[in-house]
Structures are given as C-alpha cells and as structure tokens.
Specification:
Blueprint lengths: L4 E6 L7 H17 L1 E6 L1 H8 L6 H14 L8 E4 L5 H12 L2 H5 L2 H9 L8 H4 L1 H11 L4 E4 L4 H18 L7 E4 L27 H8 L21 H9 L2 H12 L5 H27 L2 H30 L2
Parallel strand pairs: 1-2, 2-3, 4-5
Helix pairs in contact: 3-13, 4-8, 4-14, 8-9, 10-13, 11-13
Bound molecules: tryptophan (TRP) and iron/sulfur cluster.
Tryptophan (TRP) binds next to strand 1, helix 8 and strand 4.
Length: 327
C-alpha cells in the first residue's frame, strides 16, 4: 500500500533548541516511519520578514538541515530540501495569487496579529500579505495529504484548502486538498518559564555544551513562592517540573513531587538530575552533528539530492497545472 504523503516546513531561524526537538522534530521523526515525508527550509518565507537583512538566511538553512539530520532524520528515507532551490514554488504561488480573493489574504488572522506584534520590522508588504498563499503553493505542489503543523498554522492550512478547492473548481481536479495534522506539542518552557523561543532568549539549544546547559538551568525560574530552602514548593506551577515531566519517568517524578512539597529537596537538588538528563539527551545529537560538520561536501550532496527529488515531484504537479490553466 502506498504511504500517505506529508509535507512540512520551518523557517530557517538558526540553530534549533529543545522546543523544536520535542515539538515538531519528534513528530517528524515518528512520521518518517509511517509516511512519505517532505521537509523543507522555508527560506522564501523567512524573506517575508527578514528582507532588510538577508545575510544569515542561507547559512541558517544549512545549520537547520544539519540539525534535522543530527536528531535522526534520515535523508535517504525522507526528502529534505530548500524552498528557494525549487522555483516551482514561485510559479505556483503566482498562479494561485491570481485566483485568491483579496479578503482571504487580508482576513487571515496571522497577518494582522504579526503586523501588530512585530514592531521592529515593516511587514506592510505585498510579500507578507502573500505569506499564506506561498505556503499553499508549498503544500499543493507536493500533493501532500497531511500537513503536520502547530496550532498557530491552522489558518494557513485552511486557506490552502480553500485555494485548492477554488483552483479545482475553475480548472478541474488537479490539486489534492490537504488536511491538518495537528502536532501535539508537550509544553517546553524556556528558562524564564515562558514558552521556549529564540525571540525570548530563553532557549536550551541542541548545540549547548553541558556547561552551558548547567549555566542556563541553575538559575531557571521555579515556584516563585518557594523563596527559602525550607519553604515547601508547588511543582504544578513550577516550569522546572514541567521540564521534568517532559524528560523523566514516573518514579523520578514522584521523587520531585514529594521532595518539593515537603521541602525535602532544594531547587538545585531538583535541577541537577534534570541537567544531567538533558545533557545525556543532547550528547548523541551533538556527536552526530560533529560528524556532519566534518564533511560539508556530504551535506551539500544530501541537500542537492533532496532538491532533486523535490523538484521532480513539484515539476510533475506544475506540468498538470500549466495544462489545466491553458497558459
Ligand atoms: N509558516 C510555517 C511556520 O512558520 C512554515 C511553513 C512554510 C510551512 N511553508 C509551509 C509549514 C508548508 C507547513 C507547510 O511554521
Ligand atoms: Fe520547582 Fe523542583 Fe524547586 Fe519544586 S524543587 S519549586 S519542582 S525546581
């Protein structure tokens, strides 16, 4: 039986962190066992907000794909590629933009939200308005059945489905209508207790050395009511405990809960085994990453091979699209 096809992308923002590992990447790894997978660096999407300073986008793509491989994605099994290397994305984007009613783009909730939230960049551009349509092209080009994404991306998949239906209504059954595959993301808090995110500066990176992990986690925010060593704490409101739950087994969680609520352990006692656990988790990833970095030509080859496979799929869809629109 043919496997269902999934496609997903990430904007190249630089080296990845634990939030990526336990969110999107864990999910991608699991999918790679059961689905035909296409994963790509959405570097043109990065351009929608980073157009004024593009210096790091290219390197970030390489770093990100190297990190993907280091966590265990097997480039022989999954197709890893770079959006800007497959010009068919731009071609389909252009064609889809012709049939997309302006209110669909203007009404996309992420458009207004991001414009309000991001104050240090001018996102009042045609390209930024087109963000979800470019994403639609990414997905429809590969005739993906399912798109694994987080909650925040749902409006973009909805637009993709609407645009694909509209295209098929005009031109016949050419595009596959994709479904969202919602990624269950265990909440990974950053060192300040907020969601782990590069923009908050609270991340534990895949590249962090054991020393760096310790330096970041020792002062991590805990139950704010636990001021003194003798104060009992409440793990349920402590971000360190949230991390524990993501990384530890049942019995050890019991040790934390009892120790914390009876003031039997201090916060540093609680953090040290967690630090060890995280470092153990990162060690094999960093080991593989070292091997990847030792042979840059091999990474070039992996990306070139992925691009080649992606291009063949994308071009097959475009041939049908061009034929259907008769232009
Ligand atoms: N917009 C997505 C994000 O920010 C990245 C992305 C671009 C994407 N194209 C895609 C995700 C296609 C899934 C499918 O996370
Ligand atoms: Fe949090 Fe652990 Fe301190 Fe309790 S002992 S407040 S769970 S860090």
């Amino acid at each position: 039986m043919a496997q269902k096809r999934v496609l997903s992308g990430m904007r190249p923002t630089g080296r990845l962190h634990l939030g990526h590992l336990d969110g999107a990447l864990a999910n991608w790894l699991a999918l790679s066992e059961t689905h035909e997978c296409y994963f790509f660096s959405a570097d043109w999407h990065a351009l929608t907000s980073e157009y004024a300073d593009t210096a790091s986008i290219h390197d970030n793509t390489r770093e990100m794909i190297a990190d993907w491989i280091s966590v265990g994605l097997n480039p022989e099994k999954v197709t890893l590629f770079v959006q800007s290397d497959i010009t068919q994305h731009a071609e389909l984007y252009l064609i889809l933009s012709m049939i997309t009613p302006l209110p669909w783009a203007l009404g996309c909730p992420t458009f207004k939200e991001q414009q309000e939230q991001i104050q240090d960049k001018d996102l009042n551009t045609l390209g930024f308005l087109g963000y979800p349509i470019l994403q639609s092209a990414d997905i429809l080009l590969y005739r993906a059945h399912e798109v694994p994404v987080g909650q925040d991306q749902i409006p973009h998949i909805e637009i993709t489905r609407d645009v694909a239906r509209r295209f098929n209504n005009f031109f016949g059954d050419v595009l596959v209508i994709p479904k969202v595959k919602l990624t269950e993301v265990p909440k990974i808090p950053g060192t300040d207790g907020r969601k782990m995110s590069k923009s908050y500066g609270n991340t534990i990176n895949l590249a962090d050395t054991p020393k760096e992990v310790e330096t970041k986690l020792r002062p991590m925010v805990t139950d704010p009511a636990r001021k003194r060593r003798t104060d009992p704490g409440n793990p349920e409101i402590c971000p360190v405990y949230t991390l524990w739950k993501a990384y530890e087994t049942h019995e050890n969680l019991e040790w934390v809960r009892t120790g914390c609520t009876t003031a039997g352990i201090g916060c540093i006692d609680c953090k040290m085994p967690l630090i060890k656990k995280i470092n153990e988790r990162l060690a094999p990833i960093q080991e593989r990453r070292k091997e990847i970095d030792a042979d840059p030509a091999k990474l070039d080859k992996v990306i070139a091979d992925g691009n080649e496979r992606a291009r063949a799929t994308a071009e097959a869809t475009m041939a049908d699209v061009r034929k259907a629109i008769k232009v």
